[in-house]
Design a protein that fits this description.
The complex is a heterotrimer of chains A (323), B (430) and C (329).
Chain A lengths: L44 H24 L16 H5 L9 H34 L3 H15 L2 H15 L7 H12 L1 H14 L2 H8 L4 H30 L2 H6 L8 H9 L6 H28 L8 H8 L3
Helix pairs in contact in A: 3-6, 3-7, 3-9, 3-11, 4-7, 7-9, 8-9, 9-12, 11-12, 12-13
Chain B lengths: L94 E7 L5 H11 L2 E7 L2 H10 L6 E2 L6 H6 L34 E13 L26 E3 L3 H11 L10 H18 L2 E2 L3 H7 L4 E5 H5 L14 E4 L7 E9 L6 H10 L3 H11 L10 H6 L14 H6 L1 E2 L5 H15 L3
Parallel strand pairs in B: 1-2, 1-3, 5-6, 5-7, 9-10
Antiparallel strand pairs in B: 3-9, 4-7, 4-8, 4-9
Chain C lengths: L10 H12 L11 H33 L2 E2 L6 E2 L10 H11 L5 H33 L4 H13 L2 H12 L4 H8 L14 H25 L3 H9 L4 H12 L1 H16 L3 H6 L8 H9 L5 H33 L1
Antiparallel strand pairs in C: 1-2
Helix pairs in contact in C: 2-14, 3-4, 3-14, 4-8, 4-11, 5-8, 8-11, 9-10, 13-14
Classes of the chains: A mainly alpha (323), B alpha/beta (430), C mainly alpha (329).
Amino acid sequence: MTVITRPETPEIPVVDAAPPPGSPPPAPTARRWQPPWRNPWRRPWILEGFTWIYLIWSILPIGLAVLFSFNDGKSQSVWQGFSTRWYWGDPVNSVFHNPLLRNAVEQTIRLSLLTTVIAVPLGVAFAIGINRWRTKTSATFNFIMVFSYVIPELIFGVAMFFLFTQFFKFIHLGTMAEVLGLVTWNFSWPAIIVLARLVSIGNSYEEAAADLGASRLQSIRRVLIPLLAPAIFASAVLVFASVVDDFVVVDLLSSTSNTQPMSVIIYANTHGGNGGPALNALATLMLILSFVVAIVGVIVYRWMTRGERGSSGQEAMTSIAGM
Amino acid sequence: MTEVSGLTFHPREGWIGNDPRQPMRLSRRGFLAAAAATGLAGVAGCSSKGGSGASATTTSTAPLALPRPDNPVTWPLYSSNKAIADNLTPEKNATLKVYNWVAYINQKDLDAFGKKYNCKVELTTFNTMTEAISKLRSGQFNFDVFVPTVDVLGQLVAGKIIQPLNHTYIPNISQAWTEFTNPFYDQAWQYTVPYTIYTTGLAWRKDHVPEDPSTMANPWAFPWQAKYKGKVAVLDDYRESMSLGLMKSGFFDLNTSDTSQLAAATNTLLDLDKLVNLHIDNNDYSNVPSGQIWIHYAWSGDMAAAAGYMPKGTPVDVIGYWFPTDGKGPVGNDTMTVLSGGKNPVLAHLFLNYMMDLPNVLENISYNGYMQPINGVTPDALVQQGLLPPSLTSTVVLPSYFDNGLRELQLAPSVDAEWQQSWLRVSGGV
Amino acid sequence: MPNGSSPGYGSAAASERRLIVARGDLTKGWAARAQNRWVWAGFAMPGIIWLVLLFVIPFYAVLAIAGGQLNAIFESPVPIWNPLNWTGANFAAVFHDLIGQGAFVGPIFVRTLVYVAVASILSLVIAYPAAYFVTRFAGKRKVMFLALLVAPFWISYMMRMLAWIDLLQTNGYVNRVLVDVHLVGQPVNWLGGKSVTVILGLVYGYIPYLILVLYAGLDRIDQRLLEAGRDLGLNRVRTFLRITLPLSRQTILTGMLITVLPMVGDYFTNQMLSGSESTSMIGNVIDSQLNTTSQEAQGAALSLLLLAFLLIPMLYYVFQTRKASETAA
């Protein structure tokens, strides 16, 4: 999509007939002055200002939290010097030395990796199958899949909780239950994104491959999957970040303190009070983790779609954000 | 789950703690306590009253005893769950597995025990009693030592989860207060030795709140002051906080099943909600020192440890803690037991003995702030050792408190459900 | 699996096949052969089985608990698996708490709806202009703005709340600034059970999702339509009102749903920013009930009721998405 901008031209030049040769150039006639706010091409100062204010309001608190995680003291508002004590320096309270916080980091990474590795292939296969196998059954399950996307997480979490405490009792609450719950919760991301991509790709490439003599398996492996690769990758990135952030499902399905990931630890330690700067350090680590994954995601996505029409950083970012 | 509004009214219930291990510094994290009805159902097949839980109940089983101070209980001994023999040698190359609340025992004590008896000591922690009990009942774990509250003992005994103690291994019981050789919840101390003791009282910031509960006609009404809106908190524990409502309304049976008393308690707490935008949390150990909360219904051990949480420049004597001098307030204690599924019963017995020796006890108190009913633990001794600020000697639990104190004990399940429903009404789920 | 050496590779059959595919008719030709069908069904099967086991059955478990009984000794829920034996006791108790005499859940539910309404409208009012600006006027800086808009999406909700808790402490920056510019006389106790804090927390927490949806939707509006409007003499405000707004109606609706639905089940925002009963939401009640053994069954019943309440907007969203993806095809 092109964005057309016009130069600022507040004045409407008045063109006279050409002056007779030899005479001095005519004095410019008076221009009709228009008030600045009537100019349809003026810069939208108010909107821009508003957007900047929004962005500052949105990002500044986090910047401060990150900043104070490097504070050499416990205060959240008085800067006492730069130090990394809350990360690894402090022998008791830092994230590295406090086994609870350290376990939380490990648990988050463990859950994210496991969930991504399971949910993405499952969702991709599901999307391919649903897209090609057009029956009432598949439409019903497509519906159920979207339903799982739109349901409030608490209600979903309640259902999972009862499932593992009453029905599948052999799966106790803990990491296994958390992974199963998270996969189900995030299953819709790869499914929806890949489905959208499949719809826009259409059948033509596979048809062409079949015409050229490829077998079904070959055409899937060598044509469909590479075409879907950016979408698969984007959904993997999304699932990973979504699990890093997830709270409700893991809160309800965790059992002991060593099955609690970072989000639960932060929550448990801040209700109604201030949990201390080590939590800021923990949250900053979470942020770095998500950002690294997102940035890698955007870069790889751009690389993957480098030959395609309409590929750009903007498109990469919107795909990675799931839009 | 991080929150369990279930089982016990324990200072560590629902704790998600980290563990600073510094003297007088407790990394207490708020735990979201509460108890659940446990197996000691007094009445079988009870039906509900209007407005409480669901009325349909399933079949009942034989009732288990409800220990009370005026109804002491001697737990049965089973032939299939006998105590160990006398004069056995401690296990060699062993790993003693201790199963305790989060941040409730000093690692130094564990390390020292390991050195003394040439074994490894492994601490596993739990956040809620329900979690602990369900893990123990699953039989998948073989812990040796367990720290239960008093109200689950019946369940543990009936389920043969804990084994009877062989007293010859635990001579240090002589250092404990005499009442613990025959407590009402375990006559003749067949299964337990005491661990920590605590009271629940009113903590406040003297620099912001000039009033003093001890000068008031109804001291428990201290939090009900509208001028401290937004600065008043109670514990996130249904037994403890409902008890505050009961005591303020003049009822001192903290195990009551009287619905009108519970209703009065509920209403007065709802008034408190409206009056001060009541805050509900278990961060008394940090909120009062930091000044976020000025009046908190708090646990004694948490306040004793307050010195470690004071911000720079604020002296610890701005914190006050009040508990009725006649002892008519909530008191509680924890116990230590030996599990029958453990592999190292001799070492377990020796551990129980070790944790009742005065120097080890003082070491433990320096870590978690909670008193233990051992003879050398007096207010003077604690102050002298620097374990207790002189301004907070009111947090000390005196033996007389146990005689007159109000204990929150096992309730019959339907009564428990009433209590929980009332608490839900008061807390709004928070 | 057939490897393509099937009858019909001759030119007549091949061209017929291409015609069928060109018509977009996937139900004929090679895509519809029996083996082909099962191939695709095979792809979908793992996902389908997963959904059945871990999405459909759990709801049945919730129903079984909500329609179940309580164990007399432990007061723990006992599920009843046979639908014919389901009892209404838990639902009755929940209804009593919702609208009976002395109901306390009813007011909490109403409060939740009020908070969600205020927060979502506020979010829309903030998000729409920002998204509008970035899609229409950002020009060369669009990628930068987009990155800044997307960034909070990647920052965990917990961290965003944590950041605000830090700032809203009695001696935190917000109070310091307010006192310094003399807007207030003394520090305000933001974290002491104020509705304002919770509502702003909800706005702050959910607005990134809304803004992304709005961005995506507004971005799709063809610039040429706006140009046409401009050419026909509409000024900026009129262009917005008569072209952009109607075209973005669907986006606004989708965005609102994506914001409102999760917000109704939110309980952690209130817990973290207030911790007081005066601001509790329905999510808090359900969460608390789930964590109390004797109330688990009521928690199940209440969540089913909440689900029923939200079902219509949820179904609407699902149908909208399906329709959109089909028209895009």
